[in-house]
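Translate structure to sequence.
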């Protein structure tokens, strides 16, 4: 047994006393960036992630159910889930009881308005509560889910060397060759090799069918290839310099060149009898092209800091946007609102701008903080992603029209110069001067709601 003096000293020792030199110091490493710096993929159990999402969704349904009970039985008027606090969502309205206890029998007062409509199962507040959709919990990974090597991928801001087809095939221009990577099985196929011509590929663009791939070359000609048979279909000439951007509109193909011209061809006609539409409006290289929804307008961006809007009725530009202070390669039409065009400027500009192509007016503008090299809209939501050059971050997902940043991502060791969106609208692929392709999950796909998922899914069953 302990001696009485030692036991007294031991029991009387203060727990919050000074630390002793033999105590260990455990460093805090929660905020490290090792996984990003060394491209370490964190192992995540998909079943555990699904359970967490299901638990969060079930909690929201329980909250909704508690609010409905308070509305129907306690006389509350909760019309939104925000009004029902998390720590108070199952608590009764004590104030209503006190009000009823203090009410005299023969005291006259203004009667309450009837809360129920004729033949309505629930009151007005509950109807508004049920009509509000429950947003699912969203969690975006800050790491790419796949990384592919891309040797000889050019670090050139003015080129467009990757594109994702509707058949889930990725086309990549590497040096003088074009490779096809299947996202379904990971198979890699070389489509063509122009090394015997010493003619690097400078632009790639898939037809909407996913069967034909258009290529722009350094020498200035455009070729169209059959992706399934790896055979050349046709070849067009007309540009005197490299072709860095291509854009399909059904069977019409637009090409932009360093010579400052834009040529639009009907690819069904033979090159000898083909009617070529030539549009001249840029004084320097054309580095961005995009057709609007329905093919009514063609937008072009150039190194002359101009954005031009062309119509099908004239070879002269319909609108000239000259607000940018640097080259404009990044441009994309909104798939949700007709006539809305988003453009991004280079290093000296850094601004993300939105234009109304019908009126020619600037709608919104925000400084992104760095060079904008590409941008693309989400097919299923009011969001868009921008890729950036020197600086951090390298990818930003924006919510439109609030222009709030959803997430900021980084991973490449060089500036991001290429971008493509997957056909399902959930993933994107980025290419950089570090000769890698990185795949990111940044967008959400609109899922159809199934009736009767749960007894507590009242917002879908009780309508």
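Result:
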């Amino acid at each position: 047994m302990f001696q009485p003096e030692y036991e007294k000293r031991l029991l009387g020792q203060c727990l919050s006393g000074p630390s002793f030199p033999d105590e260990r110091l455990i460093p805090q490493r929660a905020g490290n960036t090792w996984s990003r710096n060394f491209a370490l993929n964190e192992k995540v159990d998909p079943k555990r992630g699904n359970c967490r999402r299901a638990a969060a969704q079930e909690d929201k349904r329980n909250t909704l159910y508690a609010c409905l009970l308070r509305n129907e039985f306690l006389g509350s008027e909760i019309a939104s889930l925000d009004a029902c606090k998390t720590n108070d969502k199952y608590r009764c309205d004590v104030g209503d009881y006190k009000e009823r206890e203090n009410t005299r029998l023969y005291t006259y007062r203004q009667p309450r308005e009837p809360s129920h409509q004729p033949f309505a199962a629930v009151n007005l507040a509950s109807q508004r509560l049920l009509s509000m959709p429950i947003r699912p919990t969203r969690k975006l990974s800050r790491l790419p889910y796949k990384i592919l090597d891309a040797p000889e991928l050019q670090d050139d801001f003015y080129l467009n060397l990757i594109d994702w087809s509707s058949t889930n095939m990725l086309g990549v221009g590497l040096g003088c060759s074009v490779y096809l990577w299947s996202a379904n099985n990971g198979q890699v196929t070389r489509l063509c090799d122009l090394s015997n011509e010493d003619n690097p590929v400078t632009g790639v663009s898939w037809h909407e069918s996913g069967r034909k791939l258009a290529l722009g070359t350094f020498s200035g000609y455009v070729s169209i290839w059959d992706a399934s048979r790896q055979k050349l279909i046709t070849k067009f000439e007309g540009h005197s310099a490299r072709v860095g951007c291509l854009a399909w509109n059904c069977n019409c193909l637009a090409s932009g060149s360093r010579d400052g011209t834009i040529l639009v061809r009907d690819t069904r006609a033979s090159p000898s009898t083909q009617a070529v539409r030539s549009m001249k409006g840029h004084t320097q290289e054309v580095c961005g092209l995009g057709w609007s929804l329905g093919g009514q307008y063609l937008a072009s961006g150039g190194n002359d800091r101009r954005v031009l809007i062309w119509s099908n009725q004239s070879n002269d530009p319909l609108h000239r946007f000259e607000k940018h202070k640097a080259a404009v390669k990044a441009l994309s039409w909104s798939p949700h609102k007709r006539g809305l065009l988003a453009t991004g400027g280079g290093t000296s500009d850094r601004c993300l701008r939105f234009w109304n192509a019908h009126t020619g007016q600037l709608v919104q503008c925000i400084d992104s903080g760095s060079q904008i090299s590409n941008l693309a809209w989400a097919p299923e939501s009011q969001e868009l992603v921008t890729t950036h050059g020197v600086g951090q971050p390298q990818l930003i997902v924006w919510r439109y029209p609030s222009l709030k940043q959803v997430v900021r991502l980084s991973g490449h060791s060089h500036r991001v110069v290429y971008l493509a969106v997957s056909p399902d609208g959930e993933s994107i692929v980025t290419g950089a001067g570090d000769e890698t392709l990185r795949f990111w999950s940044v967008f959400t796909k609109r899922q159809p709601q199934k009736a009767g998922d749960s007894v507590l899914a009242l917002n879908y069953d009780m309508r």
